[in-house]
Amino acid sequence: MKFFKLLKKEISELFTKEIIISMIFTVVLLFAMGHLMTGAMQDIIFSDTVNLIDCDNTEFTSEIRKFLEENGYEVNLLPADKYTGNIAEDMKNYGEAEAILIPEGFTEKILNEKKPSEITVICSMKSTTSVAAMTSGASVYDAAEGIEFVVEKMLYEKYGISPDDSKFAQTAVEVGNITIAGEKFANVGVEAVASVTMMRNMVVVMMIFFLVLFASQMIITAIATEKIDKTLETLLSAPVSRMTIILSKMTAAAIVSIINAVAYMIGFAGYMSGMSAGMSPEELGNMVSSGEVDINSAVETLNFGLNIGDLFLIGLQMFMTILIALSVSIILGALAKDAKSTQTLVMPIMIAIMLPFMMTLFGGSSGDSSMIDVVMSIIPFTHTFRALDNIAFGNMTAYWLGFLYQAICLVICLILAVRIFTTDKIFTVSLNFKGRKKTNNNEE
Amino acid sequence: MVTVLEVKELSKKYPKAEKFAADKVSFSVDEGDIFALIGSNGAGKTTTIRMIATLLSPTSGDAVVSGNSILTEPSKVRECITYLPDEAGAYKTMTGYGYLKFMGGLFTDDDETLKKYIEKAEAICGLGERLNDKIGSYSRGMIRKLLLARAVMTSPRLAILDEPTSGLDVINALEIRNIIKSLASQGMSFLISSHNMLEIEYISTKIGIISKGKLLVIGSAKELKERYNAENLEEVFERVVKDNEVL
User: Of the candidates A187, A219, A242, which is a domain's last residue?
Assistant: First the structure.
């Protein structure tokens, strides 16, 4: 009986409003992420539309189309007369991201010259950070394999290729690759490019995530502890400006969080190195390069290589993100009423960084104007995650708009933080978890 | 006698509160005075003290510390005062010396002056070799002595001490009272808040009784006892508060 009395007391102490709020947030967050991933995975797995640019347009290629349709593909024939050879521009005009190109003379080469002919799988890369990029074009690659199979079958059954020529039948269709990135394209498979860019950019994405979390956690705890221990009162009554106090706290948190993040990144790089058998992105590029295809050159051609200027721009937005996180954390830290509440106060920051982080990894930068994209754009941290793709795809207008938005957010947050510190709000306001701010008006 | 602090109708109303936490509080503290604000919980002592320490902004009224207004020159006020909050802590990861050096460094950039501050604090707190230890290992009494030493080491014109001996044992409380008396005799002024009437009677030169935000009476312990025909300060306090309730 005493056990149950104690148990009841322990549960009531542990199962607080803060815990319930954090549980609800976690559930909502996981559902939101699940929704995002569902969309991305559906695009990859269940897409059954194949865009075909049939520049040959013969009975033979018609039979290929028919075969694809009989096997569940919805063939969308793109007008071959609008194909100019500038594939990036052509795909933009078609308004499609993926397609299979059947070149002119395809039938002639196979049926009359008895030589292999090449079809080309064209894929546009949408993201250098999302795992979805690794599997983009899966359906179109599948369809290309179908074409290989049906040509082999037709050669045996309809065009009388003897079993002695089986080697030719099996290799009659060769599959080439073109990956498009913005205005540029390279003769390389999208998954090979994605594997190299992902490995490099994942480190940056993780670094942003850890930096924001560490910095926020530190400053919220630091301010809350000072407030609760009343060392803040001593400090604020000393002859030192409030701005100096805020800046020193922000700088210290930034320095320690950078050290922390670098330590984590070293560990993460070790982990990634293990995942890629100890190879750097360049070495991985060399490995996946085959024949005349050099992945590292292709990455450069597609403008995915990061130069000093690109790194500076990424660093600039990372710096903005840290400053925003720190100024928001100052405000949140000032709302702490006890040590327990500090854990809950970190949650808004955690959600604000977790959402764009997961979106970047699993959803990619859609760049469209869907509701979820608009909501994500409101979170200032999102723009730092998007900076990698914006720079890679040359969307500098999007980059600078994101930067401008972050700068505005930073100014607003800093003004609020300074206002809290320079007025008596730092001592009079705390957050209760009945859903509203509480003013401490019961002072002596 | 030089007036160090002059409080003029200082009032504070917290947002959404119905009543004033401090209501037109006026008093003055002269050089070498130990002015004690006494009152029950929620009477307005800490609010008044925090306004004078430039931590809270008054709703109306003003306080002038050594000629500097808390409204217009709060940074200059902070150069003249030190503040010891009720039940304040210190940075647990610092050593006692480290803490004194850090806090002293906020008042001066001169190494020699800082050295003098620390030597003074060392003599006042009497913690000796324990100053080399982390504050996290200190007892409550040791922390309070360290904080008091920090508050007076810069020889401020006015030291504001909120419940300086609260929660301390008799010996530690007595030591702190003696330190305050000794420093006041050397010309330092103190503004103290306390619940402890015996303590106040022992150390203060002037007493202000505050209730429901209003400063009801001011006088020395002797004057107040005579005025209210009371044997001790507790009786004075009881009568003043009751009279105020009747009114």
Answer: A187
Write down the pLDDT at residue B49: 94
Q: Is A237 on the interface with B (CB under 8 A)?
A: yes
Closest alpha carbon to A21 in A440, A431, A441: A431
Chain B contact set for A256 (CB, 8 A): none
Q: Is the pLDDT confidence value at B70 over 80?
A: yes
Q: Check A439 against B16: CB less than 8 A apart.
A: yes
- pLDDT for position A281: 57
Task: Give domain B3-87+156-246's CATH number out of 3.40.50.300, 3.90.1150.10, 3.30.720.120, 3.30.70.20.
Answer: 3.40.50.300
Mean per-residue pLDDT for A48-57? Answer: 86
Residue-level pLDDT at A442: 44
Q: What is the pLDDT of residue A37?
A: 63
B42, B82, B160: residue with CB nearest A442: B42
**What is the Cα–Cα distance from B6 to B31, expressed in whole angstroms?**
11
Instruction: Point out the residue among A233, A238, A423 whose CB comes nearest to the CB of B78.
Output: A238
Contact residues, chain B to chain A, C-beta under 8 Å: 14-17, 21, 39, 41-47, 50, 53-57, 75, 78-79, 81-91, 103, 106-107, 147, 150, 160, 193
pLDDT score of A435: 47
Query: What is the span of the domain harbouring residue A177?
Result: 47-187
Q: Do A234 and B83 touch (CB under 8 A)?
A: yes
Q: How far is CA B151 from the centre of its chain?
A: 10
From B43, B86, B106, residue closest to A238, measured CB to CB: B106
**Predicted confidence band at B137 (pLDDT cuts at 50, 70, 90)?**
very high
Here the ipTM equals: 0.90
Residues A345-377: tens digit of each pLDDT: 888 888 888 888 888 877 654 445 567 778 888
Q: With CB atoms and an 8 Å threshold, state whether A444 touches B45.
A: yes
